[in-house]
Amino acid sequence: MLPKRQAYNLCVVGVGAVGIEILRVLKQRRFPVSKLTVLARSARSTEVDGSSYPVQAVSSEAFEGQEIVLFAGTEGEKGAAVTYAQEAIRRGAVCIDNGADFRMDPKVPLVVPEVNPEDLNKHQGLIANPNCSTIQMVVALAPLHRKFKIRRVIVSTYQAASGAGNKAVGSLLAETAAALEKRPLPPPEAMPQPIGFNVFPHIGPFQELGYTSEEWKMVKETQKILHNEKMAITATAVRVPVKDAHSESIYLETERPATVEDLKALWRKSPGILLVEEPKVPMPIEAAHRDEVFIGRVRPDPFMKNAFTCWVVSDNLRKGAALNAVQIAELLIKN
Ligand SMILES: NC(=O)c1ccc[n+]([C@@H]2O[C@H](COP(=O)([O-])OP(=O)(O)OC[C@H]3O[C@@H](n4cnc5c(N)ncnc54)[C@H](OP(=O)(O)O)[C@@H]3O)[C@@H](O)[C@H]2O)c1
Hints:
By secondary structure, this protein is of the alpha/beta class.
C-alpha cells in the first residue's frame, strides 16, 4: 500500500486507446495527482477532452520519483511493462499493468476491486489488471459464485474493435467506409482478418486444444481471480464490427439451488453492476463510455436445474481497462 499523502506522483505509460482513457478517468474521478508524467515511444503532446498533455519519450530515468505507474503500452518482449516495470519498482513506484505479461505470475495479484480487493495486500510492487473480457465476466459471476458456487461457465464474446487498440478502430472505420463506397478494402491493420461488415472467431494466436490466447485468458484469469482453479470454463472469443464495449453471452451452472430471481436480486445490490430489465436489453451503443457492467436477458435453462443464460455488456476501455486500473490505484492510496 502507499503512504497516506495529499497527492501522488503518477505516471501513465502509453497514450493509445487505454492510455488516453486512463487520463480521462483520472481527471473525471479527481485522482489526487501532484505531478503527472505521460510517456510513450515518442515525445509529443496529446489532447484529451480539451486538455493538452505533454508526452515524453520513455526512458528508465523517467521513472525516478514516481509513486504510481499505470502501464498501458504494448505487450510482449519489448512491451513497456516488460522493459520498465522492474525499473520503476526499484525506484520506489507501485505499478499497475494493463498488459497480459504478468497476469498469471503467482507473485502478481490480478485484481478487480469489486471482486478480490484483498489480493492487493500481497503485492510486491506490481499488480496486474485482467483482460477486458475477463473483467466484465468476473464482475457478473463473483456475487453468484460467493452465494451459489458456480461450477461451469460457457461464454461467447462479441468484442469491439477498440479492444485491439487504436489501429484496429482505424481498420473498422476505413473498411466500413470502403465497403459503403464500393472501394477495394484497405489492408487490415492490427487485425488478422477484415472487421468492417465481418465477424471473426479468432482473437489472439491459436493455442492448446485449438482455443485462442484470448479464450485461455478468460479461463485462467477467471480461475485466478475467483480463487477456484477447478471452475470449468469454456470460451469462444469473437471480434465484431462494434467500436467500443464488449458483449458476452454467458451460460452458467451453480452447485447450490438458485432461481432467476435469486440471480437478479444479487446483481441489483452488487457494486459496479446495472441490471437491465426487459423489454430493455444491454447494448454496446448504450454501455460505451459508461462505467457499469450491464446485465440483462437473464433466463433459466429450460432443460437443466440451476443453469442460466445472461447477456453482459461493458466498455472494454473503461471497466475493461482504464477504470479498473484507476480503481486499483484508489484502493492503494485508501489503504
Ligand atoms: N484496448 C483494450 O480494450 C484493452 C483492454 C485491456 C487491456 N489492454 C491492454 O492495454 C495495453 C495497451 O493497449 P491499447 O489498446 O491502448 O494499445 P494501443 O492503442 O496500440 O496503444 C499502445 C500505446 O503504448 C505505447 N507503447 C508501446 N510500446 C511502448 C514502450 N515500449 N514504451 C512506452 N510506450 C509504449 C505506444 O506509444 P506510441 O503512441 O508512441 O507508439 C501507444 O501509445 C495492451 O497491453 C493491451 O493488451 C487493452
